[in-house]
């Protein structure tokens, strides 16, 4: 399939990211290392976090979105547990696998320590020892075995250049590559030729209209071409598995929008999620028309400041809510992460896919 004009123009009219050639070299080396040390090794490209839309070339202001990278960083850990090597293409400074447990402002690492060690040494507090030991061991294992490659992006343009290049670098993996597109990708951007070079001056807003004492800044955004079709048909290795996410806020739209996305792009799986319930439930929409809900049982749900638990089940037209099993005697210490349910299922689907492509070869 030939990419449409808008897609071709996107890559010629927007600047190539400075880090791209370095990232390509790192990915080639990563793929080469894993294909030579373990020819069975599966590799997941996990995208994570939000892309920015700069308003100025020397960027002071930009449009951003809510994504903290929790889905991507958490999923990466579970892919590693399933034996994958992971390329983690993430928004710079968003959450990272392993350090996510301690780095976020709501989980400040300083709160996990005190100075009760010998001679006043700083140590991890007793109640956190067990979990931190496990996180540390997994982190060190991934590092020692070169299983995790971290690659940052910031803008929508950087993200799209990276996705295109890295997908082609994964060609040697054939069906052992899996794309897990959890990043929250901007749908609109300012093309380079319309972007201001310097900081937009509030006193000199060209397109401004008088509104009382102030002016309005009118921003004219173009749609970002949808690249998923081209990823599927051209960039990604033949036989690889491609999983995208669909985010909605209106429960009545989620399933139909996810189905439309799967139909339009022709890839393997769309995972639908609602902004308000995404930590507790997702829906798998598969090519064979299946709509399958994956849900954290009520008693194992973590608290979420922004989530609305009453909306769990609202997007499920059959309202097949699970039996509410109290798995923890009513005292939840730590919630079950929904990614611990999603990733093993994907790994099993991917294993079937690899088996099928092997038997076709
Ligand atoms: O990071 P968290 O706070 O944990 O939040 C996780 C999440 C809600 C961001 C994540 O679970 C999620 O839903 N990510 C995808 C959100 C999104 O961008 O949805 P979309 O409907 O805009 O795009 C759907 C798919 O189309 C995406 O997988 C993307 O790869 C693709 N796309 C998007 C834009 C574009 N120009 N081209 C594309 O191909």
Looking at this protein, list some descriptive labels.
eight-stranded mixed beta sheet, two-stranded antiparallel ribbon, alpha/beta, globular, Rossmann fold, binds ligand PMT, 16 strands, 361 residues
Verbal overview:
The chain has helices at residues 5-13, 20-37, 70-81, 100-103, 129-144, 156-169, 228-235, 251-265, 339-360; strands spanning 43-48, 53-54, 62-63, 85-91, 113-114, 123-124, 148-153, 177-181, 188-189, 210-211, 214-215, 222-223, 241-248, 269-274, 281-286, 291-295. With 361 residues, the protein is α/β, with parallel strands linked by helices. The chain has one domain (3-103, 125-194, 218-360): CoaB-like (Rossmann fold, 3-Layer(aba) Sandwich). A hairpin with a 2-residue loop joins strand 10 (210-211) and strand 11. Helix 2 packs parallel to helix 6 (156-169) and helix 3 (70-81) packs across helix 9. It is globular and about 60 Å long. Bound molecules: ligand PMT. Residues 67-71, 181-182, 184-185, 187, 224, 226-228, 244-247, 273, 278 line the site of ligand PMT. It comes from Neophaeococcomyces mojaviensis. Its EC number is 6.3.2.51. Keywords: Ligase.
